[in-house]
Amino acid sequence: MRGPIQHFLAGLAGIAISLGLSVGANAAIFNADVNNGDLIGLIDAIHLEMVDEVSDGCWTNIAEIRNQTEGLLRTAGIPVQQLTTPDSASHPALVISAQGGRAEGGFCIVQVEASIWFVTASRFATANSQNNVIIVNYNSISNMLRANVAAVSSENVNAEAIAWTGQVINAWATAIEAKHQEPEMITLRTQLGMSN
Q1: Measured in Å, how far apart are the chain's first and last C-alpha atoms?
Q2: Burial 162-179 (b: 16+ CB within 10 A, else e)
Q3: What's the pLDDT at 125?
Q4: Where are the chain's structural domains?
Q5: Which of 4, 65, 110, 194 has the smallest set of CB atoms within 10 Å of its CB?
Q6: What mean pLDDT comes out for the span 20-49?
Q7: What integer pLDDT is reported at residue 74 of this predicted model?
Q8: Would you state the pLDDT for residue 5?
Q9: What are phi and psi of 55, to 5 degrees?
Q10: Distance CA 160, CA 29 (A)
């Protein structure tokens, strides 16, 4: 049985396929000049998604974590926008998700994960024995940042979850803001027609 995370990802893949997302004109610049560590310097806005797969009242402050996350991003100059699909490095998704519940003995055991990623579209060509060329389009997910933690508590993991996500999002927002200020990234963003 698929959970909300799998449905969310499947939905994004379906949207990407139905929209026919393709690699843009700037793909050559991305490939030549930007490695995975630098991709965060291209972020202009973030789509925030909260995914709750926790049972037994073990995680109940989801709205508070969303508000904290939005505040930290906005303080760093990163707008939070609802996007149809996170289809580029400049408009990725930040997904904060949790899975878990109450174990025997009454303790809540929950894994919390935060990740920033976007859907990419690629194509490749193959030739069969009849020399027919077949072009295949496909979509994949490119992870920019990812972290997770396991939390255990006798009541719920609210305190642990909000403290951990606050530290992670603050560190990521600071890193994104710093990357925006690097001279090479300013030059690249200008070449791509992005604001600095």
Answers
A1: 45
A2: bebbeebbbebbeebbeb
A3: 67
A4: 4-191
A5: 4
A6: 62
A7: 94
A8: 41
A9: -110, 175
A10: 41
